[in-house]
Design goal:
The chain is α+β, with helices and mostly antiparallel strands and about 350 residues long. It folds into 3 domains: about 50 residues; about 190 residues, Galactose-binding domain-like (Jelly Rolls, Sandwich), CATH 2.60.120.260; about 70 residues, no CATH class. About 15% of the residues lie in helices and about 30% in strands. Strands 1, 2, 4, 5, 7, 10 and 12 form a 7-stranded antiparallel β-sheet that branches. The chain has a 6-stranded mixed β-sheet with strand order 3-6-11-8-9-13, with no helix packed on it. α1 runs antiparallel to α2. Keywords: Membrane, Transmembrane, Transmembrane helix.
Length: about 350
């Protein structure tokens, strides 16, 4: 939502004309809103990961583990205990394992945070005699839980999505993953989240990620569907063309803003100068009447006397002028052109202006 600025200047007693400055300013503000709207809509979506062992693939932030957890990797085959998943199908070949016991001092829990618009928590779901029961808190709000009751099959589900949330505000979010049931197991692998950098999309530089295709289930029973055998992690690289385009676009935006501002200031300054009393042009009147009156003939002016007789009618109150037998005076010089002599009352003699 935005507001157009209306600026009107008019002389007293006159109607307000369309203000060109106001129209230009409104167009500029509309352009700003449209540019930023499209930037928000078509921001570049970047996929990032939070690994159970190596943390955030971009920021390096690590998840925090509370309670009893076992860090398992391909470098420690003996750390797997009874569960022996295929390390080649794990994200970065690592995972964290926990089993909740009744006498645990602290409930097993994972805390992590990220900035983005969506996220998915991926776990390894073992199809053995131990269930999986996981509850979640997202930004302090209870999220749907995940529960799975295994059967007799020995199949593992790798990169299984146990929680997915989308259409989130592109700000920092905090997530808690809790082992909610005594005897339940959690094999945490990684988190995938989407970060919006606010820049226009560039198809050629979109991060290449092979994502798991299994669907999220809050309650499952029996053998779960197998997931893709591997997950490839390729961090997106910055494209110099995108950076150059953003810089050029910003500079062009600033240049247009400066030009519009200078144009509006110049127009207003010129308008004030035209409306100021000092610069206003007023017509001035010439004194065409003679500056002096002389009797007889004047050799300097070379004008002859002309006789004008005024007759005043007392009944009607009107004046009539009757010219005598004398010829009218010749034209005299004015600052612009030769003009005919002005006839006046009485017997007077014309003269040139000083």
């Amino acid at each position: 939502m935005f507001m157009f600025v209306q600026i009107h200047e008019s002389l007293p007693g006159t109607s307000t004309p369309p203000d060109v400055d106001s129209l230009l300013l409104n167009m500029y503000l509309l352009w700003v809103v449209v540019i930023y709207s499209f930037t928000g809509i078509y921001g570049k979506q970047e996929t990032r990961y939070i690994d159970d062992t190596f943390g955030d693939s971009v920021t390096g932030a690590m998840p925090f583990y509370h309670g009893s957890w076992l860090s398992v990797s391909s470098n420690c085959p003996s750390c797997t205990g009874q569960l022996k998943p295929d390390f080649t199908q794990l994200h970065n070949g690592t995972y964290h394992d926990t089993t909740r016991h009744e006498n645990d001092e602290a409930i097993p829990e994972i805390d992590f945070s990220f900035i983005g618009t969506s996220f998915t928590v991926y776990c390894i779901v073992p199809n053995e005699n131990r269930p999986t029961s996981t509850s979640f808190m997202v930004d302090g709000v209870q999220a749907p839980s995940f529960e799975y009751q295994p059967n007799s099959s020995s199949t593992f589900a790798y990169s299984f999505p146990v929680l997915t949330q989308k259409d989130m505000v592109n700000t920092e979010h905090k997530v808690q993953v809790v082992n909610a049931q005594v005897g339940a197991v959690i094999l945490f692998d990684y988190v995938e989240y989407t970060f919006d950098d606010g820049l226009p999309d560039d198809v050629s530089t979109t991060s290449s990620q092979s994502k798991p295709t299994t669907s999220t289930s809050t309650t499952a029973q029996g053998e779960v569907a197998s997931s893709p055998s591997s997950v490839s992690d390729h961090s997106s690289n910055s494209n110099p063309a995108s950076i150059a385009g953003a810089v050029v676009g910003t500079l062009g935006f600033v240049a247009v803003a400066i030009m519009i501002t200078l144009f509006i200031m110049r127009r207003r300054q010129r308008r004030r100068q035209l409306q100021s009393p000092e610069s206003a042009t007023y017509p001035y009147f010439l004194d065409v009447l003679p500056r002096r009156t002389e009797t007889g003939s004047n050799s300097d002016n070379a004008f002859e006397d002309s006789t004008y007789t005024y007759t005043y009618d007392t009944t009607s109150g009107s004046n009539t002028v009757r010219e005598g037998n004398m010829a009218p005076p010749p034209p005299y010089w004015s600052p612009s052109r030769w003009a005919p002599a002005v006839r006046t009352a009485g017997t007077k003699e014309r003269s040139r202006l000083p």
